[in-house]
What we know:
Blueprint: E1 2-6, E2 10-15, E3 18-23, E4 27-31, E5 38-40, E6 45-50, H1 62-66, H2 69-79, E7 87-92, E8 100-106, E9 109-117, E10 123-124, E11 132-135, E12 138-141, E13 153-159, H3 165-185, E14 199-200, E15 204-210, H4 225-246, H5 256-260, H6 267-277, H7 281-289, H8 291-295, H9 298-315, H10 324-340, H11 346-353, H12 362-380, H13 382-398
Parallel strand pairs: 6-7, 13-15
Antiparallel strand pairs: 1-2, 2-3, 3-6, 4-5, 4-15, 8-9, 9-13, 10-14, 11-12
Helix pairs in contact: 3-4, 6-7, 6-12, 9-10, 10-11, 10-12
Amino acid sequence: MLLRTFFDAIELHRDDKFVSARFLRPFKVISTCPAHGGVTDHLDMVFNHQCCEPAGHQMTHLTAAHRQPAQYQAALLTDHDLEDKAAAGLGTAANMHNLCIAEETYRELAVVAVATGGVEGNAARAGDPASYYEYDALFHRIGDIGPEKQGTINVMLAVNTPLTDGALVRAVMTATEAKAALLQELSVPSRQSPSIATGTGTDQIAVMAPADGATPLGSAGHHSKLGELIARAVGRAIRDTLVWQNGLSPNRQCSCGQLLERFGAGTEALAARMAELLPDDELAALAGRNRHALDRDPPSVAATSALIHLYDQVCWQVIPQTCWPEIATQQAALLAATVSGRFDRLAGYRDALAARTGTFTPAALVSLAATALALGFADKWQTTTRRLESVVLSGEASG
């Protein structure tokens, strides 16, 4: 089915699990595609397709077939009656019905980004420990996280004017930076380290520009309008598709547990840890019944985010690690006061939390945050409880 036509030069079609950008005029393409990848000018189309389900889909011959990309692609094109087309293809476990399109224009310039994406199981930060070592056409396992984990961001990016080869490469850089910036904004956790992800281990991209016409543009970086349009379109397309594929949105990330997930404690684990720290079973049960409201209170999320950011700053050596105990104690006390509303008790919170800030590890950070949340929650209704008690006692005395 024809979805859209762009620049009177590209038709975007979707046939169930197969989405193709078909050229109506010659295009130059740079891509990460295993078959016909790199820079080429002889293609008829670029496609993206769902090759498996996101989790637990172990089809017979799947991995072996993907190791023969030319043959695999030929069979795929034949199945869609496109065997006479020269193509470069992207593959993913993401649902093609969750693809999103973003367009940006300025004067005569136009940019279109078509993205699919998922980051639930395969997100990683550039420089994280590797999973495989490739040698002599074989992949040797050396880590725990690999391509079988779900999560791939695929982008097909089209520009309406010719680009030099260098500008094509720069467009890939700009699009990649836009992706990394978006994942940082969403605080997407790496699954391989306690860091914010910059992508996934299997991301792919194809950038398309007309092969002839106007004088080729030579810049697609930050200072050029084309670079701005590319970044905006790619960021919007990826942001939108992650909502549909993973339910990942800015307001979902407004959660203490979501922000702490990359350190080993999601929402449920954080709530359980808090319950263990509360002084009695009744209070723990109350916190459990209200864990959603407590976890998603915006000021508390802000205070938790600030504590995490300070941890990151120490990791990045912006702040000396020797300063961590004082900084962490102060920020954790502020988190406790934010939960309780009792900023007059900051000094008491600092004293109570000081013993928990000496160790600089992800587990210690989670423990510190959980303790601060528990301290604040325990104090939250203390004033109200006393007021209610005094009213009742006063009424009984007067009666």
